[in-house]
Structure formats: structure tokens, C-alpha cells
Amino acid sequence: MKRFKHAFMGISALLVMTTALTACGGSDSKDTNSTSETGSSNTTTSNEKVTVNLWSFTDEIPNMTKKYIETHPDANVEFKTTVIATTDGAYQPALDQALAGGGKDAPDIYAAESAFVLKYTQGDASDYSATYADLGLTDQMVKDAGIAQYSVDIGSKDGQLKALGYQATGGGFIYRRSIAKDVFGTDDPATIKSEVGPGWDKYFEAAEKLKAKGYAIVSGDGDIWHPIENSSDKGWVVDGKLHIDPKREQFLDYSKKLTDNGYSNGTQDWQEAWYADMSGAGAKPVFGFFGPAWLINYVMKDQVKDTNGDWAVTEPPTGFFWGGTWILANKEVTKNDAKKQAVADFIKWVTLDTSDTGLQNYWANGTMKEGEQGTKDSVASSVVMDKSNGEIPLLGGQNMFEAFVPANANASGKNLTQYDESINLIWRDQVRAYATGGKTRDAALKDFKQAVKDQLGIESE
Amino acid sequence: MRRKGTINYSKYGYIFSMPFIVVFLVFALYPTLYTAVIGFTDMKGVIPKPVHILDNPFQNFKELLFDNPTFRTSLSNTFILWITNFIPQIALALLLTAWFTNRRLNVKGQGMFKVLLYMPNIITASTIAVLFSTLFAYPMGPVNSLFQSLGWIDAPVQFLQDKNTARGIVAFIQFWMWYGNTMIILIAGVMGINPALFEAAAIDGASGLQTFFRVTLPSLRTIMLFTLITSMVGGLQMFDIPQLFITPAGGPDNATMTTSVFIYGQAFKGAYMYNKAAAASMIMFVIAGVLAALMFYLMRDRSEAQIRKKLRAQKKAAKAAARGV
Description:
The complex is a heterodimer. By secondary structure, chain A is an alpha+beta fold. Chain A contains 19 helices and 12 strands. In chain A, α10 (221-231) runs antiparallel to α11 (246-260), α11 runs parallel beside α18 and α18 runs antiparallel to α19. The relative contact order of chain A is 0.15. Chain B is globular and about 70 Å long. In chain B, 32% of the residues are buried. The mean pLDDT of chain B is 89.
């Protein structure tokens, strides 16, 4: 009985502790972190393996290390991967601390997403990264691989390349073939390209033609925002002050035009109605979406339903890119030759190797897993895409690389800031308020500037 | 073993309260004090830099209160949202309490009802936020379809784009999530009232309404105070639903931006203004403290205060009389 009493008291003490913890709300969000080791399958090597710490926010790159070890049995390397999801903003603080902390466990290779990559390549945290030149990866290699300029621009600080991606996320205009035939008489990408572009005036002419037959040209104003945002000459912040690029300011008028004329279904991206428009289940059938290859292969794939195969992709009215992952190396690795070599070899294999055994070849052709057709994706190197087979059933067998190689070349990487995500949300909120008639144009601009100042502490010009 | 009678058990009390005290000190007291301090500093930016106390220590507070319309909007939003959810919430909770505790009505299946009414509180806020934004989606959503088929509206309504409906829905969600909780607390309070009071009222021929207003409500005063204060503190910290319900958080046009959403944004949306966020948190702390004190004052037991006053007067009179003699 006495023992029971003690046990009971122990349990209640535990309970008190857990309640105290939950009350502070600090106990969640840690379950997404995991650390695991991927060893080389080659156990016969006698010499010590180099351990490379790899930090990432998805398991994409950790999976690449498995493929790397598999295809490079004599690589003298062992990866220790740490994956922390970007949800709750957990990845960046953890990475910052690990980089600042240094030592044996510091990240040797780390990944950054387009939303925050600038911080690590050009911004506050850029001093932690090694240049690709230090790793022996030359500009000539970049040129030979045909890497899209926007990707290089984002990864460079003062002309020194620090980060590259394996994926290219230049965007195309993805449209419905059946609607194209009905309205423009053909579904040929080359013809549709000249119907919807270049430039937004032609785009709205096409919208008028589509409207006459009862179609919407896009689902919502969020769809045209990505191309507009990325085709502007300057980013949101210039010399520490908020700058509204004339091309971005025009988004107000374009959004209003879409709403007033009924050119769109008025949806918001990433919401139910937006997904519904991908299968033509919305209020009006929607002609097309703006997006990179990942939108087709990871988002639309599960949403198109009966319209699978009725799509095609062509170049958009203006070039743009959307999303992407960049890979950086810690500058500390250059101090140890063996480690430097191991890191350089892996980064080269992921970002610059255009051979048939390079990562990008597997990535572009969806052959990451032996004997299984995986997802095909647009990759950083145009050389790889040129020789790869980008035919996918969703696009009715069209080779998507035809559209994405020029799309990547036309994207710009010179108008980003580390505040983009937050400023875009405020901007689009005000634009919606104007477009739906709740506000005047001037009031929307004024409130936008005020909100940016109040919420982010950035004064306007 | 001989001194069995003098074994001191109080050490177990200390041992078992240690975990709580340690956890409280590390995870509650220290962060609170830390927050209070950084509100006066220039702590800003992702990469840690040396932190200094500002030349004018109240700079952050001043800028927030006088130079930041968004913060003032978020303050008024917080109060609007709290009041519009609290009044219907307490009203419905009282009504349900009256029904469930009424012996003459003797509602069948009480247990089931209580569980069902409490249910919204068990579901996580993120689920509810997603559920409601889907329900009120534009241009196609269950609510829009329903209203259209009933002929109430001709074209789909942008519920989440209009400031008033957006606020109304957030207030409704809060109300719907919390009235069950309030009801359970009030029922517990009623259970604690001496049954003899109800019996006496019944014998005196009091009607149900009279019993409720003359017996139940006055006896519930302390429980009501508790509900009011916990709900007020909860209301001032309202975060999850406004943060998750509408994109962008606190939209449309800042209509549902509560102070907590604002504070989160200051610190974690790209500008990393930890000092401003801390200062705003401390302002909220002061407001909550003042309001709680005010409620304690308003809800104090007036009759007890009067009795104390009378006693004091009597004492004084007795003293005066004694001196007089």
C-alpha cells in the first residue's frame, strides 16, 4: 500500500510537471527534428571516414546522400543529417546557432529555401559560407552546366558564388488544351505563347477573348502576382527603405481588372477553391495557372482529376521563378583538406554534375529510385534538361523542359529581399481590399506603407 | 527506529514541489523577467549583437503607443473580439447552467449534453481555423452554397474579405469554443451552493426565474469573478484563431489582428524586432493587471464590505464612548 502511495505521488508530480510545461507552450514543434546517419555501404575501406554534417529542412537532400553513397561506393564520406522543418520558423534560429557555435558539430553543408536564402548568401549570415571557388568549383563549370542566371545571382555575393540549387524553378504558363482549342483554335504551345504574351496587355486581350466564351483566364489574382513580382526591376527594399516598383504597383490595377471584368474566379492561392479550379470544378472553367515544374508535379498532379492530360505549358508573358532550394558550404570546411574534398565532391555532384550519373540527371528523369518511375522535375542545369526526357502524362505527353529551359533563362534573381514573404502578404491583402471595392487606390497604398512601417519597422521612401 | 514519532515528512512536500518550482523558474519566471528587460533595449535582428539599454528607456513603449496605428488597431480589435465573444458566451453558459441545475426540469442525458457542448474546446485551434475558413470559403464554400440555395444571396459573398463578417466569425469561433468550458465551471459553482438555499426558495414559492436571479446568481459571484478574469486574460492573449484563420494573419486589412498576432509579427516575420515585441507584451501585461484589479474591485462583496464598515463604525463609537467615560 505504501509503495502504491509513493508511486501515486510520483505520478502526480510528473503530471504537475507536464502541465507546467504545456502551460508555457514551449514543448511542441520539436518532434519534427531528427538526426540520422547515412553510412557508406563500403565497409572494407580501412581509412577513417570523413563525417559531413548536413542541415536541411526536408528529407530531399538527405535522400540524395543515400543515392550518392549508392553510386559512389568508394567515396570516403559519411553523412550526418539534421532535418528541421521550416514550420514555426524553427529551422533558421537553429541553423544560425549551429553556425555561430562552430566546432565539430557545426553544419558543413546546409540548405536554404528561396524565402530566406538571401540571408545566407548576401545578408546578415553570409559570412558563414564558403565560396564555391574555395571548394574548387569554378565559374567555368557553372557556365558549362548551363545554370540559370537567376539562380547564380541569388547565390552570389559581390560576384562570389556561394550557393546553387539542384532544381530550377523558372515558371511557365500552364493552360488547358481543350479551352485553348475552343478559344484560340489550337493548343500548340508556340501559338498560345504569342496569344497570352509577351507583356500584360496581350495577356488581358486574351482574357477578354476567354471571357466571351465563359472562361476565366486565371483562378485568382495570386496567380499573376508571382510573375509580376519577379519581373520588377527592384525589390521591396532599396537602401533600407520601402520601394514600390512601378511594375509591382501595376498589380493593383491588374488585380482590379481581373475582379471587375470577371476574368478570374476570385480565389486565393492555396485555398480550396483554388485547388478546385485545377480540375475545372470552380465557378467558371479556368484557362491556366502560372508556376514552375513543381507546381505541376507536386501540386496539380493530385488536383487535376479528370483534366489529367488536358494541360500544356508555355512561356509566360514575363519571366519569373517561384521557390527553390540552394545549397551552401560552411567556410570552416576549407580548413581541412579531406573534409573540403568530400564536401566539394558532393556539392558538385548535386549542383554541377551534368553527366548521366550526376544527381540532376536522376532528378530530371525521375530515376532517383532504381526501377521505379519517380517524379520528373526541372533542374538547375539546362544541359541536363536538354538531354533529358521531360514528357509527362499530365501535360498530354508534352516535354515540359521545352518551356522551362527558356523560362529559367528569363527569370530574374535581382529583386529579392529577406522581407519578401511578410511584405507580400501585407501587399496582397491591401490589393485585395482595393480590388474588391473596399478601398480607394490611394488609401490602399497609404495603408500598405503604414502597415510595413508598423509591422516591420521599414520606413517608406 | 525508536524516534519513529518524530520523523519529519515535510521534506517530501519540498521534494515533490521541486519539479514544479524548477520548471516555473526556468520556463515562466525567467522568460517573463527577460522580456521585461529587453523591452527597454535595442535588441533587434537575426544575428545576436551586443544589446544596449536605449538612451530613452521608454522609446519602444512610446513608439508603440503614439506612433504605431497598427498597434492601436490591434488593441481595439482585441477588445472588440473579446467583448463580442464574451457577452454571448456568458449568457448562453448561464442559461445552460440554469437548465442543467434546475431540479424541476431534471434534463435527461445531461452527461452527454455536457460532453457534446464541451467538445469544440477539445479540438485544436488549427483544425477549427481550417474548418471555418473552408466553411466560409469564396467563391465556393458550404455557407455560400447554402445561402445561395436558400435564396438569401444572389452571388457568393466574400465573408472573409469583409471586416465585419471576418470579425464576427472570429468572435463566433471563440464563443463557440469556450462557452462549454464556461458552462462546466458555472455548473460546478452551482453544485457548490448549499442546497438548503434552493429548498428554502422552493418552500417560499419562488419561481424558477426568481430562484435564478435571487439565489443562484448572487451565490455564484466568486465563480463569476473567476470566469471573468480567466476569460479576460485569455481574451487579451487571443492568438491561435486570428493567426491561422485568415491569410494574412490578422487580415483582412488588420480587422482581426489582435495584439498577440501583432507581437508575433514584430518578432518573427522578418524584421526580428524583439525589443518592440517585448515592449508590446509588457503593455499587455500592464493592461491585464489593471483590468483584473478593476474587476476585483467591481465584483467585491458589497454586503461584506458594508458589514466591515459597520463593525469599524461600532468599534469607533465604542472607543469614543470609552474615551467619553
